[in-house]
């Protein structure tokens, strides 16, 4: 993101968690994602409410017609990674976000999040979100794992 003008002001920036805290940042255009360069070391200085959170920009414009959202995931500097190619916990938060802010008049949704294309790791997460009441939702995520490479830590 190069400018505040890349933000989609129709929707709020929020913290959310389905296991790990992340900040969802709505972006207007898919083309903005190719320009994003994370500076993870600065996250604790910027994310004052939760300095250990990750940053998860997303948009409703997608590369693939069967996807509803496109995302990237810039990891917390405490996680040991810079960018996650596919992020289930953040995608789960996107399900709740969709029901609360994008389509607040519906009680359930099923969709696909595409992620990782900018780092040559074409990934998908399948999301299901169900509103139980105003305060509570059920969130399910699924996908398929593939062997990429073996590393020693």
Automatic annotation (TrEMBL):
Entry superkingdom: Bacteria
InterPro entries listed in its UniProt record: Phenazine_PhzF-like (IPR003719)
SUPFAM superfamilies: Diaminopimelate epimerase-like
Record Pfam families: PhzC-PhzF
GO molecular-function term, one example from the UniProt record: catalytic activity
UniProt-recorded name of the protein: PhzF family phenazine biosynthesis protein
């Amino acid at each position: 993101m190069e400018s505040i003008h890349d933000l989609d002001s129709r929707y709020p920036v929020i913290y959310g968690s389905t296991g790990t805290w992340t900040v969802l940042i709505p972006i207007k255009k898919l083309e903005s994602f190719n320009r994003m360069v994370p500076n993870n070391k600065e996250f604790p200085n910027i994310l004052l409410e939760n300095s250990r959170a990750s940053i998860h920009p997303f948009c409703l414009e997608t590369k693939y017609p069967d996807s509803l959202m496109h995302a990237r995931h810039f990891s917390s500097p405490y996680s040991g990674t810079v960018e996650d190619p596919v992020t289930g916990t953040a995608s789960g938060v996107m399900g709740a976000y969709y029901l609360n802010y994008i389509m607040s008049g519906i009680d359930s949704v099923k969709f696909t999040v595409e992620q990782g294309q900018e780092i040559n790791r074409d990934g998908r997460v399948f999301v299901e979100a169900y509103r139980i009441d105003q305060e509570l939702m059920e969130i399910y995520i699924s996908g398929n794992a593939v062997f990429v490479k073996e590393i020693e830590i």
